[in-house]
């Protein structure tokens, strides 16, 4: 009986030792802090790692997470300066720097941060118009972060960043803003289109102006060169005709022709007149009959042997171009022609010509 009681006592002692050891040994994880209270009063703060405390007197009241934490608050209705209600939801990033202050200075620091965020946000947005609030998120974030950091410093909390997730105006305001933005975009598009058309018209006009100027310059140069060419051609043609007339006139004077030669030349021209397409009927002037009678008398009085060269020309014989031979033949032929002309002219009398009052009909 005594042995059984001793065994039970030993067993209870072992259990008591195990419980005491368990209550004495505390292990704090990394980035956590343990708040130790002795008989309901703050005693110490445990850092990460194993620790021994007095069992039944000390206990770890709170374990505070010192990592950076993120808390998102639901949308809150805020009234802007122009009396429009918008829904704004925020995200807060904070860190507990002082676990003791976060434990004993406030009951629930998360709720405190939430309420501070709502009131501070209403103060900031209340001084802005809707358009200003929509375009000033960075300014709102910085102001709200500074206000929260200053308010939560005595709680041992450091607010590192505040972000506005969304700013939602009423549906009617959103529709009106979309219409306004659409109108602004249409206006800018119309202005840009008009500017583009104006620039295009200006450039086209400048191009046409330059093209017209260059075309006029080209036509001017072309007209000048054409006029210069025509002037030079006319001068050269006139000079050539003048030289030809001078040469012919000088040759005529050097040859000293008489009326008979001129009549003969006139008669040679008549066949050329008759070769025309419309020359079905033509009239011979009275002077032509006189010229014919004179030519006839001259031809009748020319002797059969005129004293010319009797040398037969061989068509297959090569042409001789020696100057001496040509000069001798030419001089002898000229002398014979002059002598024959004098013999033919002496027996001709103009009194024996028939009257030529009326031109013969052809």
TrEMBL record:
Transmembrane segments: none
Any Pfam family hit: Band_7
CDD domains with a match to the protein in the record: SPFH_paraslipin (cd08829)
Biased segments, Polar residues type: 321-333
Topology with respect to the bilayer: Single-pass membrane protein
The Band domain, residue ranges: 23-181
Top-level taxon: Bacteria
Keyword Membrane part of the UniProt annotation: yes
A GO cellular component annotation in the UniProt record: side of membrane
Primary localization class, coarse: membrane
Annotated segments matching region Disordered: 300-362
PANTHER family given in the database record: STOMATIN-LIKE PROTEIN 2, MITOCHONDRIAL (PTHR43327:SF10)
This protein's name: Band 7 domain-containing protein
Organism: Aeromicrobium flavum
